[in-house]
Amino acid sequence: MTQLPAKTERKLGLVIDLDTCVGCHACVISCKGWNTENYGAPLSDQDPSGANPRGTFLNRVHSYECQPDDGPAQLIHFPKSCLHCDDAPCVTVCPTGASYKRVEDGIVLVNESDCIGCGLCAWSCPYGARELDAAEGVMKKCTLCIDRIYNENLPQEDRVPACVRTCPAGARHFGDFADPESNVSRLVAERGGMDLMPEMGTAPVNKYLPPRPKDRIEDKAATLETVAEEPTGFFAWLDRALDRLPGGPTGNRTQKETETL
Amino acid sequence: MHPAPSVILFTTFSGLGFGLLFWLGIGYPPVTGMTAFVMFAIAYLFAVGGLLASTFHLGHPERAIKAFTQWRSSWLSREAWASVVSLILMAAYGAGLVFLGQRWTILGLLGGVMSLVTVFTTSMIYTQLKTVPRWHTALTPVRFLAFSLAGGALLAGQIRPAILLLLIAGLVQIMHWMRGDGALAASGTSLATATGLGRIGPVRAFEPPHTGTNYLLDEFVHVVGRRHSLQLRVISLILMVAIPVALLMMPFNHVIAFLAVASHILGVLVARWLFFAEAEHVVGLYYGKRHA
Ligand code: SF4
Ligand code: SF4
Ligand code: SF4
């Protein structure tokens, strides 16, 4: 059914911390691995070892450079997957009912046996979160690892999306945004979690934490006064002695050169 | 957007076919018997041929029937319904004209209106997309309907309405281009809003997520050079409006009519190629491929 539910009981989603993501792409690989071996059609690759490899991924990491007015440019790694939007255009445009948003937890899914592969849902997603699999001809997207988070065969610590479980930097957090006391809701409140392209009116559930302001050494510690330009006493002697050793400015000179000085 | 041949053929020919069905439905020209048969055959060839071409870009055409289920929310589903309903209505109306020499006026009017509704639903598939600011305007359905009516009049041999409608359609097309060129910038979406990083300073795409291409780049990121685009716009206007109008002004004969139709179709194909190739999907921003 491609009409959106008026309200979902829970709002499961991710918080992605742009401050701590190191751009390692581990989440990309663990996502591809889990979702190729489990729920739904595998994420195929075309020409994987050839000259023009390409394939289906549900999570991709971009890198951007920001240039503040004062201070050096900042490099920000930017993982991007489905944001499980509350007002998901990808759901309402679907002609077959294959795309839907679950009432119980707000996860946006594709029923692959109903999908005709028209691609319209991918056209309607501003974030590029959907990719049509070239081998299967059906639309693939992040499932929030629906086959992990409710999977009682897995140990408790593994019942989170594969990307969250994998991230070595702790940059990805999974939780229920409908609960104001959840880990993700608190992170969003404390760190000013933001929406991507809010003007599109998609009301994304996933939030991004902006990079924290960078420390600047001038603000942290005053530079000490210079006490002497040239060393004196013991240090002056040490300086000269070290200079004479091999490798020092005078250490490699021949006897003759030293005499002429 | 990727200018897929199947979608270009589909929108061009089904637009023309349903345009012709509209004119036949309202009784211009008032044909019966063999002449009616030929005209309906052309209309169905175009309309149905276009619809069939559109299934070529589906991953699973064998499940296309499921596309009828979501008419409450999906314009694509509504298009499926509208096209089938108008084709059935017009088939019944056409059978009356061809085999019984009977004109069931109400049925024809209904079928004619439904044919235009079909074109409207097609245009709404594109218009609804906020992600493609160039398409997200009331001018898009106006443009589709104007060309469908003009091309239909041309095919139906309605010389005076055809001249007038071709000129109007050309004008609408020019307005659509002019508005379209500033649409992405006016939409307010930029790499800054896409990443939320604009508050730090100007954002630049530094490294793409993958070295090769992917579905997103192939489907959504197509860049047409400015000069190239201007040339093609002029060519399409000459072919789809100027030449047919000039030919229609001449004393009528079948060769001239055929040339006018052929030129028009070629021009619409070029304009439709531009419609897709020039459309900037906002996902291109993430790849640093769009400069609003
Ligand atoms: S991110 Fe895209 S695919 Fe995911 S729910 Fe939002 S619009 Fe749909
Ligand atoms: S590609 Fe599949 S899921 Fe997407 S709109 Fe078409 S039928 Fe629906
Ligand atoms: S695994 Fe974590 S740190 Fe690495 S790219 Fe993904 S989010 Fe960033």
**SS summary, helix count of chain A:** 9
Distance between the termini of chain A: 92 Å
Please state the overall shape of chain A, judged from the principal axes of the Cα atoms. elongated
Number of helices of chain B: 12
Listed once per kind, the bound small molecules are: iron/sulfur cluster
* Residue share in helix of chain B: 55-70%
Q: What is the structural class of chain B?
A: mainly alpha
SSE sequence of chain A, one letter per element: EHEEEEHEEHEEHHEHEHHH
Give the strand tally of chain A.
Answer: 11
Give the overall pLDDT of chain A as a whole number.
Answer: 91
Strand order of the largest sheet of chain A: 10-1-11
Strand content of chain A: 15-25%
Q: Would you tell me the structural class of the helices and strands of chain A?
A: alpha+beta
Radius of gyration of chain B using CA atoms only: 21 Å
Query: Which blocks of ≥5 consecutive residues of chain B have pLDDT under 50?
Result: none
Work out the radius of gyration of chain A: 28 Å
> What is the highest CATH level, the class of the largest domain in chain A?
Alpha Beta
CATH topology of the largest domain in chain A: Alpha-Beta Plaits
Q: Cα distance, first to last residue of chain B?
A: 16 Å
Please, could you describe this protein's structure?
With 261 residues, chain A is an alpha+beta fold. The N and C termini of chain A lie far apart (92 Å). Helix content of chain A is 23%, strand content 18%. In chain A, the strands form 5 sheets. Chain A has a 3-stranded mixed β-sheet. Chain A has a two-stranded antiparallel ribbon with strand order 2-3. Chain A has a two-stranded antiparallel ribbon with strand order 4-5. Chain A contains 9 helices and 11 strands. In chain B, helix 1 (5-25) crosses helix 5 (139-155), helix 2 packs antiparallel against helix 3 and helix 6 (159-181) packs antiparallel against helix 10 (226-249). Chain B contains 12 helices and 1 strand; from the N terminus they run H-H-H-H-H-H-H-H-E-H-H-H-H. Chain B folds into 2 domains: 1-128, no CATH class; 161-292, no CATH class. The interface between A and B is large, with 69 and 59 residues. Strand 4 (59-66) of chain A pairs antiparallel with strand 1 (203-207) of chain B. Residues 93-94, 96, 98-99, 110, 115-121, 139 of chain A line the site of one iron/sulfur cluster (SF4). Chain B: The chain crosses the membrane at residues 7-28, 34-59, 80-100, 106-126, 230-249, 255-275.
